[in-house]
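Protein in question reproduced for absentees:

***
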Amino acid sequence: MALFQCEGCNITKEVSEKFAGKMVKCPNCKGPVRISDMAVPVEATPVEEPESSGGSMPIAEKSPITPDSEPPHPRPSALGSAAAAREVPVTWGRVVRVWWAYLWRSILVAIGATVIGMVVGGVIGMGLGIVGISPEMIAMITTPIGLIIGIIVSIFPIKMILNKDFGDFRLALMERL
């Protein structure tokens, strides 16, 4: 059996394995849910969404909750935290918070890259100077090396702010549905 787990409204159901890995609509909140292959002890059978609703995703059938059964409750997501994600509007406040998070991290990385570049350039320059290479040639060799180091480390601020919690939102890469 496969696991239907809606993080939007906290409904969890067991559905047929034929839906494992597919996107369906939650019968309660109509939000998209990716079905995983992890089972929980709740009965449900998915059915196709009625034609009148205009959607193309299957919709999971509501399962009855009896007095003996537990009500739906949040469970750790088998899909990770992306299962509870929804798009939020781009506001100036959010833009400034992301920009600031990127800016100060970039400054720290640039300082670190400068120190690393100076050390690497100094070692290479000293080595080349010892063998008699002119300072102009040393500069021509070490400048591209410093540029390459700068380009390589410039990716770290982006990595640092992806999945950073900004309070009411976070940046995340998500698969296009």
